[in-house]
């Protein structure tokens, strides 16, 4: 089973006020915590999906940068996932992580991969505290047709994509720190 590791880092960070993927935690930008969790599990290739405005700010040489096509409006994560999956042919699965989860661990990634092994599911998605987490999930290559259908219908919600797929959900405890998502600058001022 071949898995590509993907970090989504092309959002506008409008709620945060500046590109949050470059905020530091333990001396590393947020996005590197996601990348390292994937890299420690030997996923290949490692990909950062970003936009033209941010591409020059990523300083990792062990990743492939895939730049979203310029658009007058932000297209969202479903578009970014499809953009990556349509450009890389050989993996069976794509492990998608957002760039704003600085507490994600290699152990979380390893556990999720274990569930994808021998799974008939189209997606393996964690559920934490009753909330589905589609940006910390694995998507099988065969889901690209469903993505194309949704994007053609101008539907961009990942939750709607998941409704169209055979999804294996994996429960995680509500207090699992891997899921701490930083959306606002005030969130990051807390004492982590």
Automatic annotation (TrEMBL):
Cofactor(s) needed by this chain: Mg(2+)
EC numbers, comma separated: 2.7.7.77
Top enzyme class: transferase
Cytoplasm recorded as keyword: yes
Domain MobA-like NTP transferase: 5-163
Positions that bind GTP: 8-10, 20, 100
GO molecular function, one term: molybdenum cofactor guanylyltransferase activity
Catalytic activity: Mo-molybdopterin + GTP + H(+) = Mo-molybdopterin guanine dinucleotide + diphosphate
Record's keyword terms, sorted: Cytoplasm, GTP-binding, Magnesium, Metal-binding, Molybdenum cofactor biosynthesis, Nucleotide-binding, Nucleotidyltransferase, Transferase
Subcellular location: Cytoplasm
Positions contributing to Mg(2+) binding: 100
Function: Transfers a GMP moiety from GTP to Mo-molybdopterin (Mo-MPT) cofactor (Moco or molybdenum cofactor) to form Mo-molybdopterin guanine dinucleotide (Mo-MGD) cofactor.
Family: Belongs to the MobA family.
Domain topic, free-text comment: The N-terminal domain determines nucleotide recognition and specific binding, while the C-terminal domain determines the specific binding to the target protein.
HAMAP family reported for this sequence: MobA (MF_00316)
Protein name listed in UniProt: Probable molybdenum cofactor guanylyltransferase
């Amino acid at each position: 089973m071949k898995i590509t590791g993907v970090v989504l880092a092309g959002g506008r960070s409008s709620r945060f006020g500046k590109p949050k993927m470059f905020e530091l935690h333990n001396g590393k930008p947020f996005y590197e915590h996601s990348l390292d969790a994937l890299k420690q599990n030997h996923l290949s290739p490692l990909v950062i999906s970003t936009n033209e405005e941010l591409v020059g700010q990523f300083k990792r040489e062990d990743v492939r940068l895939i730049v979203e096509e310029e658009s007058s409006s932000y297209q969202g994560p479903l578009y970014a996932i499809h953009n990556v999956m349509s450009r890389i042919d050989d993996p069976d699965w794509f492990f998608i992580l957002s760039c704003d989860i600085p507490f994600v661990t290699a152990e979380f990634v390893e556990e999720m991969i274990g569930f994808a092994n021998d799974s008939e599911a189209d997606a393996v998605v964690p559920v934490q505290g009753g909330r589905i987490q589609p940006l910390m999930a694995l998507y099988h290559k065969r889901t690209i047709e469903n993505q194309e259908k949704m994007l053609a219908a101008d539907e961009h919600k990942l939750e709607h994509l998941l409704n169209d797929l055979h999804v294996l959900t994996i429960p995680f405890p509500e207090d699992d720190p891997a899921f701490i998502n930083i959306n606002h600058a005030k969130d990051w001022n807390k004492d982590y």
